[in-house]
Amino acid sequence: MTDENRPALFHFAQVTPVGRSAIASLVVNGMQALSVVDQFFQPIGGAPLSGFPVRRIVFGKWGHLDGTFEEVVVARTTEADIEIHCHGGVSAIQAVTTTLLQHGGQLVAWQELEKLGLEGELPYWKKVEQLVPYTTTMLGTRIAMQHAAGEIEQLLEQVEQLRAQREFSQAKNLLTAYCHTSQYGKHLIEPWSVVIAGRPNAGKSSLINQLVGYERAIVNRQAGTTRDLLRAPTVIEGWPVEFIDTAGLHDGNDAIEIAGIELAKSQLAKANLVLWVHDLSTPWDKELQQALDQYPVLVVGNKSDLVATSQIATSWNHISVSAQSGAGIDQLLLTIISTLVPSFDADDLKVLFCEELDQQIQHWVKTLPDV
Questions:
Q1: What are the Cα distances from residue 266, in Å, to 66, 197, 246, 258, 262?
Q2: What is the mean pLDDT of residues 254-273?
Q3: Is 336 in contact with 319 (CB distance < 8 Å)?
Q4: What is the pTM of this model?
């Protein structure tokens, strides 16, 4: 037994019910645990557990101090966590437990072990695993589940092998594909914010209804009808997007209208993209274009059904649509998502869900030799 006054080197818990069973499982947590497990676990083939990569399942024998042994299956699930699976008989689990206790381990309840594990840094796959329930699209769920299954860890193992072989160029190419991609990965969990703005009666409410495919915003011929923010979630090419319909921006008169306009301005500052809707039947203000340059903006000409096609072709350099008839809406949707995610249609989309790992990978790319 460990000295109660001496701090434990690592902690472990039985995560299967106590009593006889076909298989019993222990989970060991702590950076010191691996060296202890290496003393008693003998994998088939001779190499120690520390010589295997994380998440590799290894079969072998667990030796006891009296010379007996148990056949076990062991796997390092993270750098600090080890799973041990042995025969479910009472004597087998007691023998493994006794060995761990005699070499600095402390037996705790599985609930306590879970808390201890969460206090440390979770591995990337575990972080993504916790995000899976929050994905809202098939694309987001598929990529998150692939990462939770260890796809990125396997990539990093491949990079390590290439570095060992001095294939630095190939290693750098693999890593570079993931640089600066966490900005996209987070939007597979949190929707992109696309604010629809413009002058009163430009057709913003009609446009948002066309974009989401149902009547979310109330349409009124009277200018300045929208005073509050209207939010409409949708999905474009597998990416969650939230459209926000704002009050028309102009010089308001009453207090409620002014408040709505100020709210719209605050949304412009926080938006991932602004769709500025212009009524094609009215002149375009070039000074307005300069004012919009402070935002990530996509200018959209609306009411193309009221203007001759030849006139639009010669005097309008932006996208044109008709929120009334739906003309040009499909192209606008593709333009929106390609503006937000330039590689959205790539066959093998590269994203990360963790900014810290993204920054680490950027650092590794910088430190790899060029030859």
A1: 72, 12, 10, 13, 6
A2: 57
A3: no
A4: 0.63
